[in-house]
Design a protein that fits this description.
14% strand; binds zinc ion
């Protein structure tokens, strides 16, 4: 956790957002966004995904973006990787954190990364071994991404014991942290509370656990609040809620970064983020979009009279 920060806000827009819309940002355009958002104080940004460019042309310049982003002082740069090859490329580019994705749902894992969850776990072990055998990469944080933890568009409900089993196996394989994702926006706050309560009971309080919510059904911030109540202190979000799906008009992406920061600061939880500067970053991002909608209400309403940022207790 960065100094003076109670909750870590991890920006997803450059990966989860951009991969879900049609506009392809130039590398320069991405860097303008990254610099502006880092300037606002957001401590960690996921800037790309190391998948084959044929699958996701929006992410083709990820290595370049990582290389430039790590030059920004104090910014933690993360990237996503679906497998060993992607993780190697992410580390070579200099990513500080590599999120390795697997789905709790067997069917979703097969469709997303074309292998069983057992094979994904074995691959995770190989990634840990690769990191550990290369002194230059020993400080890289390997995050175990647990997609579809709250439900799956292919197989429906996901069982809590399955989530716990994969969490334990990822940690056993060497994951430095866990990231629990409501990939398809099915979660509700009660479910979130139950899952994280059980997860902390299973893996203990010393494990860093992040949460990743989508606002698909309007429950994004409520879910974030429920996660906070259980003790989660790392939350993924997307500037302007960028994301959704090119085939589903109006579908929204991750929870909105600026709305989340406003909620946290109002509740007395320090994020290190300046909201006015964050809105500037949002404008820089928005002016590069070609018709895709952005979301969030803080940008429209602004700060309430008498608002004060959270301060150290
Ligand atoms: Zn997502």
């Amino acid at each position: 956790m960065p100094e003076g920060v109670d909750v870590l806000v991890h920006e997803m827009g450059l990966r989860d957002g951009l991969q879900s819309i049609e506009t392809i940002f130039s590398t320069e355009g991405k860097m303008d966004w990254i610099r502006a958002e880092a300037e606002s104080g957001v401590p960690q940004l996921q800037v790309g995904s190391f998948v084959p460019p044929k699958l996701l042309p929006q992410m083709a310049d990820s290595a370049d973006v990582v290389r430039q982003a790590i030059q920004i002082p104090d910014l933690v740069v993360s990237a996503l990787a679906p497998n060993l090859k992607g993780a190697k490329n992410a580390m070579e580019a200099g990513a500080h954190q590599v999120g390795v994705v697997m789905s709790i749902s067997e069917a979703h894992n097969m469709s997303n990364v074309r292998r069983s969850t057992k094979e994904s776990l074995e691959d995770f072990k190989r990634i840990v071994e690769y990191r550990d055998s290369n002194p230059a990469y020993n400080d890289v944080c390997l995050s175990g991404g647990m997609a579809t933890a709250f439900g799956c568009t292919i197989s429906g409900p996901v069982s809590l014991p399955d989530v716990m089993r994969i969490a334990e196996q990822l940690l056993k394989a060497g994951a430095n942290r866990l990231n629990v994702a409501d990939t398809v926006g099915y979660a509700n706050p009660g479910q979130v509370r139950d899952l994280f309560t059980e997860l902390y009971r299973t893996v203990g309080r010393d494990v860093a656990i992040g949460a990743h919510f989508h606002d698909t059904r309007g429950l994004g911030l409520a879910n974030a609040f429920a996660a906070l109540e259980t003790g989660v202190r790392e939350l993924d979000a997307s500037l302007g809620g960028l994301g959704g799906c090119p085939y589903a008009p109006g579908a929204s992406g991750n929870i909105v970064t600026e709305d989340l920061v406003f909620m946290l600061e109002s509740m007395g939880m320090r994020t290190g983020v300046d909201l006015k500067a964050l809105l500037k970053a949002r404008k820089i991002m928005e002016c590069q979009l070609k018709g895709e909608p952005t979301h969030g209400t803080f940008a429209k309403a602004g700060l309430p009279l008498g608002f004060a940022y959270a301060s150290a207790a």
